[in-house]
Automatic annotation (TrEMBL), chains A, B:
GO molecular function, a single term: 4-amino-4-deoxychorismate lyase activity
Record carries keyword Lyase: yes
Keyword terms: Lyase
Enzyme class, UniProt record, top EC level: lyase
Gene Ontology CC annotation, any one: cytosol
One Pfam family, short name: Aminotran_4
EC numbers for this chain: 4.1.3.38
Provenance organism: Corynebacterium maris DSM 45190
The name this protein goes by in its record: 4-amino-4-deoxychorismate lyase
NCBIfam families assigned to the protein according to its UniProt record, in alphabetical order: PRK07849.1-1 (NF005886)
Domain of life of the source: Bacteria
């Protein structure tokens, strides 16, 4: 009989400023009601794929994490500490659950902390990959396109305090888009800029199209597109293997005319888009090759 | 000797769906790492002023809370339960701290809950009003104007899942604006639409201008301006007392030419804007009258 219950996660709570870390009982809560993460979504995070007890693509995650923290004016995280704790948690997970769960999800969370203390909160969790990920990789995702709901001001109109390049905890709008997709028989939303028609990103992943067998394209990251650690890893890895990888504006027509369209993110990895709105996107001959390429790039 | 330590808050954790409520020890955390509030800011809240052990403006808060929950696709909150718990917590606060803290802050928080359970999380806290509120009421606030950083798409371009009318936990961008203001010698930011120049709202309050002694104006709430419960209470109360209250587009020039400009919110109540960017706004003769009017409206 297959157990439907996922194993409990491993949680380490970190003291900020390079202090100690402690293993936290996952059956008990550790976040206070007045933590800025809870009251304002005022914090940053990274989701990191663990494979066989080892974190993947860690340098890019660490760099984006530091950059997100800086954009939010949080004290610079002691990345050495985050890496050490991650290694310990990853190994502990692997020792306990590696056989059944060789792929796991590690999350770094760093918040402005409690209103009553002013000390940032920081923790690392390692847990099983959500079940629906494997299904998405196997079956693909039907994607709606839609407006993000807002236009990010750039250039002279940009707010000097803009946080949109940071990977913050403010995902309520994206989660609403995702629920809307599911209520309408789809699995995800690819956001499109309403003024220019440019493809932006999906709710929690980067859009990549494949053309002519070995050409990979992704929209240029910027204030309305989060810079994707997985896309970067893929482009580096694929570029070294003879694929032509380019950052380039994409439009919905480019999705429809591509050989294949992929949603790429750290833990879910590569998911092929099997339909864009009402248009089916049949699998190309090289679908397995591209999926393997993404997996290999992320495992590299 | 004046104690600098604020008293511990009173926390009730509610079972959703009209279940029971329990008093929670405020020295212990109660939010789990995988609560959607923490991981996605996926929840809604209200901040309610308590005066002398009684909640104020509760019908409007309850209505907006229900509306926010509906916009996020959360199960409808059992408002009777929220009200009962609020009354109990408010009375407990008043019995313990009413003499030193006759004004208190009550917060309602309602989230999509833990990823591992799928059951919404719900709690009510009552605590001391932040110290800086009294200072802001006494000294006023110097406000920067600035872009919100994004334009909310409305009309045909609006996303069908748009959450911007909901009071969600996604305030990281507003908090960044507030930090920017403070780093530059200001106390708050009044957001202005970059395309039209319309005044929107401040980071956590509604903008109201007073002209010709007894005319009150506020921008029309909509997808880029949260409907303000305090502004509504003020307009109703003031309207019954001969003030002319109108919802009307406002521009920065209207702020500069007004007799006075106010930032109105539930717990901080009325704070007069003493400067807009580099322009000082001296107190008008009726400043005390307007401050008292706001207080009376919120206490009504």
């Amino acid at each position: 009989m297959v157990s439907l219950v996922q194993p409990q996660p491993i949680i380490y709570v970190l003291e900020p400023f390079g202090g100690s870390a402690r293993l936290h009982n996952p059956m008990l809560p550790h976040v206070f009601h007045d933590d800025a993460a809870v009251t304002r979504g005022d914090g940053v995070f990274e989701a990191i794929l663990l494979l066989g007890g080892e974190p993947t693509n860690l340098d890019r995650h660490a760099a984006r994490f530091a950059s997100s923290a800086a954009r939010l004016g949080l004290p610079a995280p002691y990345l050495g500490q985050w890496r050490e704790v991650t290694a310990a948690a990853a190994q502990a997970w692997h020792a306990q659950h590696g056989e059944k769960h060789p792929a796991a999800r590690c999350t770094w969370t760093y918040t402005r902390g409690r209103e009553s203390t002013g000390v940032p909160s920081a923790w690392v969790t390692v847990g099983a990959e959500p079940r629906e990920h494997a299904r998405a990789r196997a079956e693909g995702a039907r994607a709606l396109t839609g407006p993000r709901g807002y236009q990010v001001d750039t250039g002279d109109k940009a707010a000097p305090w803009l946080t949109t390049g940071a990977k913050t905890l403010n995902y309520a709008a994206n989660m609403a888009a995702l629920r809307h997709a599911k209520q309408n028989g789809f699995d995800d939303v690819i956001f499109v800029d309403t003024e220019t028609g440019r493809v932006l990103e999906a709710t929690t992943s980067t859009v990549i199209v494949v053309k002519k067998g070995r050409r990979l394209r992704t929209p240029r990251p910027g204030q309305d597109i989060l810079s994707g650690t997985s896309q970067q890893a893929l482009f580096e890895y694929a570029g070294q293997r003879g694929y032509k990888c380019k950052v380039k504006d994409l439009y919905v027509d480019d999705l429809l005319s591509a050989e294949s369209v992929w949603l790429v993110s750290s833990v879910r990895r590569g998911v092929r888009v099997t339909a864009v709105n009402e248009v089916e996107l049949p699998a190309p001959k090289n679908a397995a090759e591209i999926a393997a390429l993404i997996d290999a790039a992320l495992a590299d």
